[in-house]
Amino acid sequence: MDAFDVGDAPVILDGGLATALEARGHDLSDALWSARLLADAPSEIVAAHEAFFRAGAQVAITASYQASFEGFVARGLRREEAAELMRRSVRLARQAAGPSDLVAASVGPYGAMLADGSEYRGRYGRTVRELRSFHRPRIEALAAAEPDLFALETVPDVDEAEALVDAVAGFGVTAWLSYSIAGEHTRAGQPLPEAFAVARDVDAIVAVGVNCSDPDDVPRAVQVAREITGKPVVAYPNSGESWDARRRAWTGPATFSASRAREWYAAGARLIGGCCRVGPAEIAALAREF
């Protein structure tokens, strides 16, 4: 599969890697989340990726969402050790992948490093330049492991999107940009047309869309993304439950279903999967649906 070639048939993404790891008995309640297992249990990350590929996923998103130099150094690692763990995330996904599968290196938002739910609010009090300086070294480390593309994901506001789009420049690796949204706005409150316009004229951004958002919000967001950018659209919402950052727990009913993905496809989504609380069983149902 070519990262540049997204045709009319949907490309099936994986689901929530942390969800699969928790189902295998791992406690991911600390600040590093699934990134902790890059050091502590790398074989378990491979196994989780394999479960999604067996379910029908064609793209694995790496365990680097919450990986940062700041987070790893706070655990006593040297910077080079932290960089090696980030590169390992790509290699582990590649180990699980088949010859035609893709590996998307996850670049989560600044708020993921804070581990306080800020990725669902944005507006960190950091400038675009400061956010670029945070992301650029992480992206450089991931690029060294040669992923097929970057997943710039769960982006809560336009400022961070601008920083990420700038930070990926020059590495020769394309990316998708996906926002976490509420209704027809980013989590920080900007209208979606403004948010998607950030990537409209950027050749390195090959797809745009939404992730870790309520499934109810996906169809309109997909439509707007397609209208504004003309690029392939990525959609991988969470289960529909809400994240309680104080309790570090998901609450409310799950509304994700494979049949609903038909509506996302009709709206223009061509890279379709799931995020938090969407496991291999749901991805298998999604693959069967198409």
Automatic annotation (TrEMBL):
InterPro entries: BHMT-like, HCY_dom, HCY_dom_sf, Hcy_S-methyltransferase. It is an enzyme of class 2 (transferase). Its cofactor is Zn(2+). The keyword Flavoprotein does not apply. Zn(2+) binds at residues 212, 275-276. PROSITE patterns: HCY (PS50970). It holds the Pfam family S-methyl_trans. Residues 1-290 form the Hcy-binding domain. GO terms for molecular function: methyltransferase activity. Keywords: Metal-binding, Methyltransferase, Transferase, Zinc. GO terms for biological process: methylation. Its EC number is 2.1.1.10. This is Homocysteine S-methyltransferase. The gene is mmuM.
